[in-house]
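tool=predict chain=A
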Amino acid sequence: MKRVLLRVAYDGTGYHGFQAQNNAETIEGQLNRAISKLTNVVNMELIGGSRTDAGVHARDNVVVFDTESSIPGEKFSYALNQLLPDDIKIVHSEEVAGDFHPRHCDTVKTYEYHICNSEFADPMKRFYSYYNYYPLNIDNMRKAAKYIEGEHDFTSFCTVGAQSDIKVRTVYSVEILAYSNREMFDGKVTKPREENVDIFIRVRGNGFLYNMVRIIAGTLMEVGRGSILPEEVEKIIEAKDRSKAGPTAPPEGLTLLKYEFV
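tool=predict ok
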């Protein structure tokens, strides 16, 4: 028996999240069917690193499973990619220690939330970004982001009723990246509105509560719109009250970028 680690990338648009569910298509369900077909073992037990929500994407999620297959660990990626749909692919595979568990070791996760901030929606980005037509003050969003960094009780940024009793997490960094979003017509670049930008909220931490990154994104957008002052974010954290923070941003803008073991 050996334990194999997979690094998985997927487009979460057509799935009801990562975790297997009855009567719903999930990332774990697709992986289970592919691994079972390859190893001739029905209903493999998979251990996922991050249980992303419905509609959320990943470039680097982690899955481990045990198998008696003779296939070398590093070859599972090639074999499984022949059996998986186009919106789920293994980007790396390897054999790991038999007691390795991705959720029982120190990790750093990096998530990115994409906002398409423009006068009109871009249909090419509809599955991978949140469209916002209100002007956003990026400088104020960056000021607010600094209050989120560090070790805090993030109860205000966690969906009510979440399973985890411990709400303390460490956020190493919150970056707000912005790039001009210019449109071209008849070969000429039009002068964009000042707020025609693609905004990326990149959050790096040791772990995240249920919907935490999406609530951070929703709160920072409220700051950008002027509904919340940057310095009020500190009070929102101290309140430990979900109702004080901004809304939960829609899932399509969120991507798990990197899953690191430290």
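The two ends are 26 Å apart (CA to CA). The mean pLDDT is 92.
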